[in-house]
Records
---
Amino acid sequence: MPMDNSKRLRRSNSIIFVAFIAMLLSYVVFLSSLGDIFDGTICHNPFTNYLNSILSNLMDGQLVALLVALLLVTSALAFQKGVTASKYLKFIPLILVLFPTVMAGFYFGCRIFPKLIYQLDFGWGNLIFPPLLLIVPLFALIQFRTKISLGIGKVSWLVLAVLVLIMLVQMVETLVWGILAWSTSQPEVVRMAYGYDRTLMPGDYHIWLGLGLTMVVLFGGLAIVAWLDGLPAWRTRNESPEMQ
């Protein structure tokens, strides 16, 4: 039997959430140190420099899109009638998402009012992203197993288009500089790492570079496919008969 539209959108959104976290972790674990080492290569290559400038302007949008989508669906879980959860337990996902959202609000407040940066310098990355790394996979599972209205699924899917677009740009940029880095000899990479005070993973760096690039492309591609999979459900106007 064909999958109903609400379930299709829930599946699409959940896969995008998990793929984003997996792609982020893949980059951090395998490629972040190499990315720092080859920063000069990225800046000197016209194409990677162009993509890098785009990413620097879009990274805030990525965080906003992720948090907006999380808030949309968690609010639906908490307040939507007929959601299969107890009176109090259904508010737990919303409470979990509010903490990184409030921290992100302070972060953007400091960006808008620079003077606050010197008064409220808490290390924003440590306050925003670790909770998100823990919340998003759990939330994706909760969302996939809970009925949510088609309207909420459509809005969330549309917001996640921003997240997927930025993942696509990040994937292309990582692939290009990764190919450039692949051709650099091992002694040269070790010398560059020493100059940047970075520690390479043991063994041939090509192994870690290959693993990182493979996983980034895999999870980025998975997010794109999942988003496209939700397109037919987004275009429909009504709930399926099973959901009405």
---
Amino acid sequence: MPTTGPEHGVIADAPTTNWVDAYAPQYVKPYCKLARYDRPIGTWLLLWPCWYAQALAHLNTGQNWPNVWYFGLFAVGSLMMRGAGCTWNDIADRNFDGRVERTALRPIPSGQVSVRQAALFAGLQMLVGLIVLLQFNTFTIWLALASLILVAAYPFAKRYTYWPQAVLGMTFNWGALVGWTAITGALSPACLALYVGSIAWTIGYDTIYAHQDKQDDLMVGLKSTALRFGKATPQWLTGFYGLTIVAFAIAAHLAGASLITFAGLLIIAVHFAWQIATLDINDADNCSTRFRSNRTVGFIFTASILADMALR
């Protein structure tokens, strides 16, 4: 069984039993790690806004069953674009990653992959993502392409602002807009509220994630909300998670959701309270567990909307 450490090559924040290190052929492992296939939580967090926005848009238009084909397209697209974004992030951060313990074993700083190879791999993933995108309506295609500006800018945000998590939130949750317009063909107040709530959610969970790196970030001169909030992190999380619930509730109301969806939001609120109450910002394992638990948040919200549709 693989364990974390230089002799094994398992990157510090990847599960020690991840399938890439356990089963992937040696020659593809560096590329799988560039795309974060060994850490699928990010793909889930990118995918859920696409799915719950699509489901809410279906609910808003009176449908009682989602477009399963679109669900599949968003799954493939999220996998590809998360991989491309992470590969670009590693290219941009290659001079920092080697100086941070958690990221030192990433493929570029550890010498497993060259910058040119990584760039070609990013381009291949983006090509697949484009093929997926072309299956949607014209407005959605152009809207999704606009997100590339944020994708390109994000890796540099932490060099200049203590709010890179806000930039990540705008980038990572663009799928909430795309998921909605894929069904409706236009933006609306409901999807904008959903987008705002999703951004607040990401600022919250990525602040928890960033506490794992705060000492290394200080050493290399990078910034984060973890450093900005410090010991006041629980209070800030309460504000951002509270905004998430309020914005999601507004979006659900505008889309015509029933009590089933709002019951799901109540469960999510309890989950957020657990995260905040049990968080130890000085314990990396504690932070990692609470960060990863946000996959459950996306599942609950999406499942509650789908149940709302089915039981109408």
---
Amino acid sequence: MGEEETVTFDLRRLREYLSETYKSEVDLVSVGELGIEKKTVSLTEAVKGFGYGKPYLIEFNVNEKRKSVVLETMRSNIFGHEFPYDRAQSLLMAHTLFSRLPRHSRSVDVGVFMKDGSLQSVGNYSEFFILMEKIEGQEYYKDLERISEEKKLINLDIERCQVLSDYLAEIHRTRKDSPELYRRRVRELLGHGECIMGLIDSYPSKLDFTSDEELESIEEKCVGWRWKLKKKTNRLCQVHGDYHPWNVLFKNRAELSVLDRSRGEWGEPADDVAAMTINYLFFSLQTYGCLEGPFKVLYQKFLDNYIDKTGDQEILRIIQPYYVWRALVVASPIWYPNLSYAVRKKLFKFIHNMLELDKLNPDSINSYLE
């Protein structure tokens, strides 16, 4: 939503909203931009050109008392407020916290403009939820568990690996020209609570396979990678954001569905590729102690097919910090409490090698575990 965008709403709808909020019939007196001459209103009018980020002073009578309130939205900006869901988070926080601080202006309500011009309250919220359609299928991680147990591939495994790789090649073709948004997503790779720094902060102290000093060193090196990646703004594309085997379902052999898209619509394609392919390494480490056998076949098949379909050779110079993030996830004692010491140590060797690596060689994954 750009700064020039505006909304038009019917003053009758505004009166209805205020009457519902104050639990009594409201008579509007004036509506106008704060600091500009007041305008007496007629309910046959609409407020046109209501500017996002501009405070509007609303005066009305309710229960024989005159009240004045300020209605304000947020502007879209490059500081993490590009999308309506970003701004919703900030406004919900404002409504929750304004009234808790002494002498702070009190929030009466937080609401939303609907597409039909009405205003609806969400101020009495407790917790938000999402209602989704159920999709049929079996999670892909169950395939990987079977492969680990049987130590062999069937034709369906190759077919599904191809479909998984094709899907990313397809969605990543949709590009977006927004350098600021790409830099935001790279910044979030480090600083978001679900990403590198958040994962590092979740690691308990006094672990036998790592230390606070080692985690600090990893974090510091990741900052250098941010400066390498933030210039690659032409790579911004449509992404899933959490494309791993627990978020992918298959039915009818190779009919794919996905769940739980995360952290935004646009991002770096290496994010999705790393999220899936780290699991071939992860399951193989638990089975063979290295990338070996059927998992090596699937890893190479997935990556070769993706690069062949997209022509994205540059991803081999980009994917390293995304592998760092995903390796921190699968090495986590919180997410995987029963993982062996040996597997965790190899994952941390992998992390250190990724941070030092200029270009990934897919044929040399095992050397990065040493």
